[in-house]
Amino acid sequence: MLSRMPSAHKSSTPFLVGLLLTMHGFFVVIFLVANAPLEKTMGIVQKIFYFHVPCAWLLMLSTFVCAGGSLAYLFRGSERGDRLAVCSAELGVLFGLCVMVTGPLWARAAWGVFWTWDVRLTSSLLLWLILIAYGLARRYGGAGGRRLAAAMALFAAADVPLVYLSVNVWRGLHPTTKVVSSLASGMRLPFFLSLAIFSALWGVLLTVRMRVERAQARLVELAIAVEDAEGKSS
Amino acid sequence: MSERELRLVNVGKTFGRHRALADVSLAFVPGRVAAVLGPNGAGKSTLLGLLSTLSQPSQGRIILGDEDLSRHSRLRASIGYVGHEPGVYGDLSARQNLRLFASLYGIANGERRIDEMLARVGLDGVRREGAARTFSRGMLQRLSLARALLHEPEILLFDEPGSALDPAGAAWLAGELQREREAGRLVVLVTHDLVAAAAIATHVVVLRRGRVACDETRTSFSADEVRALYEEATRGKA
Amino acid sequence: MARPSWAGQAGRIAWKDLHIEGRSREVLYTMGFMAALVVLVFSFAFISGQEVTVGPDVVAGILWVAVLFSGTVALSRTFDRERESEAIRSLLLSPVPRSAIYAGKLAATAAIMFLVELLLTPLLAALFSAVLWPHALWLGLLLLLGTIGFASVGVIFSAALLRARSRDALLGALLFPIVIPVLLAASRATAYLLDPAAPDLDPALFWTRFLAALDVVFVVVGLWTFEPVVMGD
């Protein structure tokens, strides 16, 4: 048990480098976004796009990472997989919240309403709801809650393409489906950089959150080891 | 009846931050009744849950003969379990319950076997269509035993089976246990009742805070001997 | 006698549930009553005066919302029977593959729900003067597919929630986000089938196929995850 102690102080250098790069990246992105050309019809409001789309992408990524972790937990009993799943689900809820806030702002400016049953907005909403339900299952699901939550993540991943397809057909193809490929050339660099930096932020947050979970797991392990040692001696 | 031993090798079980079993190594032998004793929370039910394959050990291995118990789901067919809940469908009659489980276990000559079992546990006289829900506690426990013995398991696990029985019922159950032991089955009995344990056990295990505090095998135990072992093993309990 | 086949064991478990239900009819009555209530609640909320001209969209929506809510009742009642006196433990202890237990529970739950729907749909049609007969068989197929989609997820979740204290409150909250595509596909297809003015039925065909694909995905994931989900910790 003691021989495993040093692993708690695993090298932090790559993580710190990543953290610093991400922080600097945000300054660069803000500058680039501020200087990107204004969109003709929507003007300044369109800049929310640089924030909204990366968040939506990360919501999707979180769902799949959560499903991957859940798979490892359910079928191989991997505690690490379970930690990965819960951390990414939390991040998914967080970035999903950003989507749900910025989406209506965009919709208000673009179409004059706060909510449209737009394909991607609706799909994101469903994913977000599933990730929130994932948290509910873990917290209140009793003895089988963790396993139930893991199964939910698998159903969610299976759901994603179908949700997207169904909402797409349900609402009819939305005119903005090809926003990204039709970006003005001046908007492209800020957009893709923003995407990269948000993804890096996601990675940094996931690492931090995973470390907390791992530290907690180790704490429990140590407490049990102490208990075991006491049990042996008494 | 088979000669396979059921062995636990350094078995540990953790629930979240709670240690239910630590470093448990035991061997249960066919033809013996092992009584597992211990205060509440000592890990008795956890142990039985592991032996019944319904939960998996966090550490260590459970081996039946030379097969790992957790790896082979067909080994479930060699286990019979009687819990404090009867584990039968209240809406079905005694015979329908047994018929269901006979078919799930793929028992040959199901009807004859069911007749035998009903006669053996003294339920052959009950009204054919009476739902198990209308049964008394004692009758339910008889039905539960019939269900557990239906497929002639090598291993019989009992989780405080006598806790809801009147003295006559408890005496009947002790007789049945004795009979199964003599038939060469491996019996593990979890109980709080030291006197009942002494009457039938030839192997006494006392758990204390998830550890084996006593592991004694004799040809027979008197009630005083069991009580002495129990008190010595659990002394100094915080 | 050799051990029965996988399908035989699944069938045995389903038959057990249906036999119990045939004796008590508890799920049929409570679920049926609940479904009728949902329909009536919607009627009171949406319809004023003598007006009964509601579009097929609304009728289809009411039908499927009623199926969803009453289906939750059916799920929690059939699993209460497993929990009572720990019968589920005996089932899990038997050498039956867990996927067969899943299939059996799914078949029984879907069958009970389907029976209620067969009674509910004419009631709905009568209340809203919807025309069922031109596509009665197709509608029946839709009901069956939608029910399987709902129950395939519901059985897993109910089984996992057996030991949770707030299982009844949680079941709907966890289940509905996952089965929304089922609701969407089923109610769209039903709306086209109920619409006498519909120019053609291509959309209904699309949604029926989509629903079938959804069922396949959900049942496969269900068969595959049931065993690890019901394993005790």
Note the main attributes of this structure.
heterotrimer; A: 234 residues; mainly alpha; Four Helix Bundle (Hemerythrin (Met), subunit A); 6 helices; 78% helix; disordered N terminus; C: 233 residues; 8 helices; 81% helix; globular
Gist of the model:
The complex is a heterotrimer of chains A (234), B (238) and C (233). Chain A is built from 6 helices and no strands.
Overview of the molecule:
The complex is a heterotrimer of chains A (234), B (238) and C (233). Chain A has six helices and no strands. Chain A is flat and about 75 Å long. By secondary structure, chain A is mainly α. In chain A, helix 1 runs antiparallel to helix 6. Chain B has 238 residues and is of the alpha/beta class. In chain B, helix 2 crosses helix 3, helix 3 packs across helix 4 and helix 6 crosses helix 7. Chain B is globular and about 55 Å long. The N and C termini of chain B lie far apart (43 Å). The two termini of chain C are 34 Å apart. In chain C, helix 1 crosses helix 5 and helix 6 runs parallel beside helix 8. Chain C is globular. Chain C has 233 residues and is an all-alpha fold. Classes of the chains: A mainly alpha (234), B alpha/beta (238), C mainly alpha (233). The interface between A and B is small, with 9 and 11 residues.
